[in-house]
Every structure is written in structure tokens, then in C-alpha cells.
Amino acid sequence: MTNVSDFFLGCSSPHGFFGFWKELQGEDGPRLYLIKSGPGCGKSTLMKELARRADGPVQRIHCSSDPDSLDGVYFEKQNAMVLDATAPHAMDPACPGAGEQVVSLYDTLDAPLLQSREEEIRALFARCSRLQAQAARYYGAAGGFLLENQRTAACLTDYPKVRAFAQRTADRYLPKGEGKGKEQVRLLSALTPKGVLTWRESIPALARQVWVLEDEYGTASRVILDTLRRLALERGHDLITCRCAAFEGKIDHLILPGLGLAFVTSNSWHPMAGQKNIHCSRFLSREGMRAQARRMRFVKKAAADMLAQGAALQAQALDTHNELEVFYRQAVDFALVEARGQALARQLGL
């Protein structure tokens, strides 16, 4: 397998669960294969095997609730994507057959066997939902603290200076191309049972030159990356926009594979490395930051404590989900699941 990169497509956040599954549907999007089945029924194993067979660039889309499992695989050569289309990221085809194809594995389940354990199964589903809801409340509290520090830093940021820097950077590194660029939206980091998890190795897999924007509070980097994204698309460059797991709409990283170039944000939540570092503190009032430093450290620690509690609850939810999988593994015909995977591999030309 060559040119492998890893991403998330959604995760729990201070604003609840969010993701970018719907953005994949459309005329210019990849052909979608939507897998439907229960927990522990072989969806992730099937997708891992398809990824292993790929003979071109492939993106592995991980599950934020269980990063060792896959929620999807994107095959660049085929412009096709296989996705777990069950809750919490349930998807139905907008253009059945022509645009998306449903790969149902429900018929591989022994329904009478599952019905004999219905009470236990329903209780585990309910417990998993309660734990995820509890985790979301802690993430919401963390988001409030993070937003407070971001607003403080925003008041001390020299935005005209930031915008001028962004324009100079674009003029130097983003040459004028033809047409309009295409965009993929992903997450490089997510809030998971393991804490904040970042697929750092995806950056050097897709870019030779990496600019690191060191920005603890994201005020300057946000403007820089918004500007670079807009101009890159206007100038005809395809890009992968990596959104922030904590703040919807905020960009954390931009990857331009065609230029072998990436601009990434580095902070204490997801430290990054590259060939060139830009210290975004240069855009902040030093005197103002010194005056606020003690309070901002306190707020940051409070946010970290809330994130840790959220991750611990997600870990308990994962344990509960693993208990659910035991019931379903006993009821699934894995030989039939494997046969469906072989048929899908042939459709994809793998």
C-alpha cells in the first residue's frame, strides 16, 4: 500500500457530534459505497482489507470513538469512498445507484439470536448513549474555557498585520493556475477516548514542505489559513482543508498535495513539526499578553481538565460498545461478510 494518509471525518466536540459526511455527496464528489450493519459485524475489517489492496493514494478515515477502527476509506485513483453509514453518522443515498450504492450487511445477522438477548442489547445501547452525552457536556465546558482564552487573545491581535502577512505568503507560494481548485474537508485531530489524537504522519505523506504556524490561541493562524484557503481555490489549487475539532468553521491545517505544500497550526493540544516555523506571537501585544498570562493559564488548565474528563467518559462508552460487539459477533456470518467485501473489491477494481 502506497501513499497512505489518515484522517477523521467527524468527532464529538464542544458543540456536539459533527462531521463532514454530507459534504461528500454531490456531482463532483467521489462515488460512495455506504455500508450498513451492526456493531462488531466486520465493517472496519472489510474497509481495512480494501485499503490494504489499494494500488494508489488512499485515505483511511478513522472512527473518533475508537481510533483503531475505520469509518471509511477514500481511493484517489478510483475517486471512490467506502463509508460506515450507520449512527452517529448515518447516511442515506441522495441519488441511489447513480450517485451512491448501499452495501447492506444486515442479512448477515442471525436476527432470532439477537432477539433472544434484546433486553441486554438495548441496555448497552442506552448506556453507551448516556456516556457519550456526559462526555459531550464536559467537552462543552472545555469549549467555553477555550473560547474565553481565544477571545482574550483576539483582542490583543494586530489583524491588519496578520492579513498583510497572509497576502504576502499567498503571493509567494500560491502561483496562479487555471480554473477553480477542489476541496476535501477532513479532520486531522479529534477528541477521542485517548484524548486529543492527531494523525501527524499524514502531513509528510502529502507534502514535502511544511510551514508551521505556532499559535496557541489560533487567532492569527485562523486569518492566515482562511486567506490561504480562499486564494488557493481561486488560483486553481486542489487542497485538503483540516477543520478544528473544538471550533466548527475554524481551519487548523491546509494541505496542497499538488504543490507538495502544507500550512499547519501548532499548539499545546497538537504540536506539529515542519521545515519553517512562524511564531504568531509576533502578531500579539506582548504587554497585553503578559497582563493576562496568569488568568489565561488558569483557564487553559480548566479546559484541559474538562477534556480529560470527556475522554475518560468516551473510554467508558467504548468499553460498553465493545460489550455490544460481543453479542453481534456471535450473530454474524463472517464468511458472508467477507464475500461481500470481495465483491466490493472487484467493483472498485482492487
H/I helix tally: 8
Question: How large is the share of residues in beta strands?
Answer: 15-25%
Classify the secondary structure makeup into a structural class: alpha/beta
Question: Span between N and C termini?
Answer: 11 Å
Please summarize the sheet with the most strands. 6 strands, mixed
Q: So what's the overall shape? A: flat
Q: Low-confidence spans: pLDDT under 50, at least 5 residues?
A: none
How many domains? The number is 2
- The portion of residues assigned to helices is 40-55%
Could you give the order of strands across the largest sheet?
A: 1-5-6-7-4-8
Mean pLDDT: 94
**Number of separate strands:** 16
Q: Radius of gyration in whole Å, from Cα?
A: 22 Å
**What is the H-and-E element order?**
EEEEHEEEEHHHEEEHEHEEEEHH
Any descriptors?
2 domains; alpha/beta; single chain; 350 residues; six-stranded mixed β-sheet; 43% helix
What this model shows, in words?
The protein has eight helices and 16 strands. It is of the alpha/beta class. The strands form four sheets. It has a six-stranded mixed β-sheet. A six-stranded mixed β-sheet has the order 9-13-14-15-12-16. Helix 1 runs parallel beside helix 8, helix 3 packs antiparallel against helix 7 and helix 4 runs parallel beside helix 6. It is flat, with a radius of gyration of 22 Å. The chain starts with a strand and ends with a helix. The mean pLDDT is 94.
